[in-house]
Write a structure and sequence with these properties.
Helix content: 40-55%
Radius of gyration: 30 Å
Strand content: 5-15%
Distance between the termini: 49 Å
Strand order of the largest sheet: 1-2
Length: 136
């Protein structure tokens, strides 16, 4: 994904985001298991340090860390799914409608009106002057 978006096909970008979403699902399940395990089995945990009082700080830190990391992966999952859907839609478009290909996208020309209004202000009073200018 280090190349410009127009250098990749939309299908490969969609496949990448589906892979990223699958990875996020795996990590979310691991973090959920870690949070559940921490919540249920924290009473049996011990540390090799002599002071066991630090466990009352360590266990909540691990619990909230796993919940926070799982939440961040959930946000990443939703972004990956959205980007995967958008790139999939782009890959299903005909080549002349692909917004990533500027040289293939047909853009209609805007017709110029036969007249336009020029607005200016005078230096003394700040009054606005409007005139109609005809274009050839």
């Amino acid at each position: 994904l280090s190349r410009n978006a127009s250098g990749r096909t939309p299908g490969s970008s969609a496949a990448y985001h589906v892979f990223a979403a699958t990875s996020d699902l795996v990590f979310i399940s691991l973090y959920a298991f870690g949070a559940f395990s921490t919540h249920k089995n924290a009473q049996t945990w011990a540390t090799r340090l002599s002071n066991q009082e630090i466990m009352k700080y360590f266990v909540p830190a691990v619990y909230y860390m796993t919940i926070g990391a799982g939440g961040l992966h959930f946000i990443s999952l939703s972004i990956s799914l959205w980007l995967g859907m958008m790139f999939r839609r782009i890959s299903l478009m005909p080549p002349d409608m692909n917004p990533l290909e500027d040289h293939l996208t047909a853009r209609p020309f805007h017709k110029r009106s036969k007249s336009s209004i020029t607005t200016g202000s005078s230096l003394e009073g700040g009054n606005r002057l409007s005139t109609t200018v005809s274009l050839p």
